[in-house]
């Protein structure tokens, strides 16, 4: 007989917050699920630079306001994400009439953007992913050569964090990145954040995105957590999902592509991965204070369109009908 699952976030109160990244459609389609099992929300897209500030003199706060209002109504914390990123930033920010804007103009625009955002949401946000994904995956590289980097310089990161702390001094500021468990990238992320500390740049914590799959090394994840913890900063898991597919399982332009159909064994392996991950997170709960999944249930997940559009993935803790997966029940029962 089916038994109702106790609240996931209440079960984990003594360990860390349980969050979900959402858009306004989640607040409608998954309303009851969110209210019961999550006590933190991340605005997945609508607080990024482009969606909220599409033109220099035009702002669109509607979606972000909706998430803030839902969180307030239900006693949830909010994580803001992410004003400085190499995607979802409109060209106007970097343009002065018919050429690239100079460093000072871009920094002035960034400061004005953060001033407005902090003025509107500063008291309602407990953590902010200020800079997102500034490190490249190439083990022989270092910083991503974005427009932020090429037009301002490496210190664009320092300015972004100082601007947020200037206008929202009570908000925790985080750096956020993916593939953070890969040893070479891990070391470069540590290098970046240690450099920030040496320059007295405000930095409260690091967000481990944790977009993993059923083949990801748990030893690499543990080693990464330990490496970041040596910096003496807070850690949060910010974008957790467990894909059923290997990263290399995607269309090849030279061969016909047949989408892989997940097997029963794949789902079993996914469940074991989730159980092992939460066991690891619990064991490091002295430094991890929040675990957020990138979405709440399988009916709304970015992995249905990336990296293979139309290929159904089932990467989250709750099924498409919002029922808990066996691993989710096991994760709750492990702490009750």
Please characterize this protein's 3D structure.
This protein has 336 residues and is an alpha/beta fold. The protein has helices at 8-11, 24-29, 31-37, 49-52, 62-73, 103-121, 147-152, 156-167, 183-198, 218-229, 264-283, 326-333, and strands spanning 17-22, 40-43, 77-84, 95-96, 99-100, 127-132, 172-177, 205-208, 211-213, 234-243, 288-293. The strands form two sheets. An eight-stranded parallel β-barrel has the order 1-2-3-6-7-8-10-11, surrounded by four helices. It has a two-stranded antiparallel ribbon with strand order 4-5. Strand 4 (95-96) and strand 5 form a beta hairpin. Helix 9 packs parallel to helix 10 (218-229) and helix 11 packs parallel to helix 12. The longest helix has 20 residues, at 264-283.
List keywords for this structure.
336 residues; alpha/beta; 8-stranded parallel β-barrel; two-stranded antiparallel ribbon; 12 helices; 38% helix
Question: Count of DSSP helices?
Answer: 12
Estimate the mean pLDDT confidence: 96
Structural class computed from helices and strand pairing: alpha/beta
- Please trace the helix and strand order, writing H or E for each element: HEHHEHHEEEHEHHEHEEHEHEH
> Total number of β-strand segments?
11
Shape category: globular
Cα distance, first to last residue? 20 Å
User: Rg, please?
Assistant: 20 Å
Strand content: 15-25%
How would a textbook summarize the main sheet? 8 strands, parallel, barrel
Q: Please bin the fraction of helical residues.
A: 25-40%
Low-pLDDT windows of residues:
none
